[in-house]
């Protein structure tokens, strides 16, 4: 599946303001494509990982539970 959200559709992780390795996701794609595109915030032209909404929810829960 090819996913190409426009730049306005990408949302940065709340940790992006803290520097370091951050991700962006495109929430609008969930309703239109049924998947959650995820990419490295420092490589907007890089690869995009697509996961199911359920998998994305699990990734967010895991990140919130981690001692970062």
UniProtKB/TrEMBL annotation:
The record's annotation in InterPro entries points to:
DUF397
Q: Which domain of life is it from?
A: Bacteria
**What sequence ranges are listed for the domain DUF397?**
8-61
Pfam families per the UniProt record, alphabetical: DUF397 (PF04149)
Return the protein name: DUF397 domain-containing protein
Native organism is: Streptomyces clavuligerus
């Amino acid at each position: 599946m090819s996913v190409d959200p426009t730049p306005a559709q990408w949302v940065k992780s709340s940790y992006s303001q803290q520097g370091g390795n951050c991700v962006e996701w495109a929430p609008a794609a969930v309703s239109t494509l049924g998947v959650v595109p995820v990419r490295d915030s420092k490589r907007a032209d890089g690869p995009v990982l697509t996961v199911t909404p359920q998998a994305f929810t699990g990734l967010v829960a895991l990140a919130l539970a981690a001692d970062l």
